[in-house]
Amino acid sequence: MVKYFFVFIAMNFFMLSCKNNFESQSKATLYPSKTFSELSDSSFVSSAYHIVYDEPYLYFSDRLNNRLLVLDKQFNVVQAIGSTGAGPGEFLQIAQTTSLQSLLFARSIDTGFLNTFTKNGRYVRSFLLYGESEIRLAIDRNYRIYISTPTKDFPITCVDTLGNMVHRFGAWIQTDSPRSRRARNLRQLFVNRNDELVAVLESEPFIEIYTLDGRLKNVIDISNHVFLQPRLKYVAEELAKDPNNRFSTYHLYTDIYYDPASDRFYFSAVGGEPGGGSEVIVCKINNNALEVIHHFELKNEKEEPLNRITSLCAFEDNKLIVFENTEATFYIYDFTDQEMTRSLNKY
Fold first, then answer.
1. pLDDT-based confidence at residue 124 (cuts at 50, 70, 90)
2. Burial class (CB in 10 A: 0-12, 13-18, 19+), 254
3. Are 60 and 67 in contact (CB under 8 A)?
4. ω into residue 56 within 30 of 0, thus cis?
5. Can you list the alpha helix ranges (DSSP code H) found in the chain?
6. Cα 215–221–223 angle (5° rounding)?
7. How wide is the angle at C-alpha 332 spanned by C-alphas 223 and 106, nearest 5°?
8. Residues 219, 160 contacting (CB under 8 angstroms)
9. Parallel, antiparallel, or unpaired for β 83-84 and 90-91?
């Protein structure tokens, strides 16, 4: 099994070597074209997770209301799927949501069951899915499901739509305690257009590329990218403190979205201090590198940075929808490649 390490002891030297590069970069500021807190059915959403765009609709988990919501591109509620409960097609804290072809998948945190529905909302089946429930899982075109399982024997597990294990695999980040092992081996998972599994580590500046049968093809070190510098600097300072006076783990992202139509990833960076942050990075990932296309700072109508993005999604080629958790508000942003590229220095 492949093993690798990320050593924070060398972080201070690393930060000094990147200082000039960080200061030379610019980012584009985006202001919302639309915001809304109340939905067209007169309901409110306090926690929106895992927004997904699948033409022509947006899907997301309305966590506390225990429903999978379907919105059209004018953000009207088309359908609410599921209800509160522990039975088939029901949810107790709905979390992971994704779509593939004619099916929708959504998971209940408290029960661990992954429910499957047709696009028109008809319940198909459910099964118990072990693994992390609040970060993105991946599904390939053969409906095999990949989920982060850092408390199991392997950090990634693949199952079929009946819950039967297909295989387990993954490279461990080695740690000195079971608690840090779980946190440092959390992965957001995506199947890209090349039928590869892209695994983005939540707390470490690494991106892994696997074949769908579990062979590790490459590990991309993204610690030198500008958008991670404030967070990595903060983490280095925290890790230098007495363990009793600091947290034990530090996530780098609040959400990641993959758009298969453009083959682009959208990262919501945490920022330096604890909390969410307001920066979104648009990039492409290949076997050798992460190519940053845009670096956005998202602001509200008062021209203030957003406090905490918990979910984001790209749709219609040049639009972003994000959910800001502090104000429980959806923000819509429009951008064009031409305009933003002109305002962004090359990484």
1. very high
2. buried
3. no
4. yes
5. 11-23, 178-184, 229-239, 337-342
6. 155
7. 75
8. no
9. parallel
Amino acid identity at 282: V
Residue type, 151: T
**Other CB atoms within 10 A of residue 16 CB:** 9
Quote the CA–CA distance of 306 and 107 in Å, as a whole number.
28
Smallest CA-to-CA distance from 297 within 335, 329, 256 is with 335
Burial of 287 (0-12, 13-18, 19+ CB in 10 A): exposed
Residue 346 structure tokens: 């090359």
Q: Report yes or no: 201 and 208 within 8 Å, Cβ to Cβ.
A: yes
For tokens 């959910």, name the residue: 323
For residue 207, what are the CA distances in angstroms to 7, 212, 264? 16, 15, 14
Predicted confidence (pLDDT) per residue in 255-298, tens digit: 999 999 999 999 998 876 665 678 999 999 987 789 999 999 99
Nearest to 35 by CA among 218, 335, 298: 298
pTM reported for the whole predicted model: 0.89
Characterize the bridge pairing of strands 309-315 and 319-324. Answer: antiparallel
Residue 343's pLDDT is what?
Answer: 37
CA dist., res. 149 & res. 229, Å (int): 28
Q: What residues contact residue 244 under an 8 Å CB cut-off, 6+ apart? A: none
Residue 267 has φ and ψ, to the nearest 5°, of -105, 130
Report which of 93, 74, 90 is spatially closest to residue 82, judged by C-alpha positions.
90
Cα–Cα distance, 41 to 77 (Å, whole number): 6
Q: Yes or no: say if 172 and 163 are a contact pair by the CB < 8 Å rule.
A: no
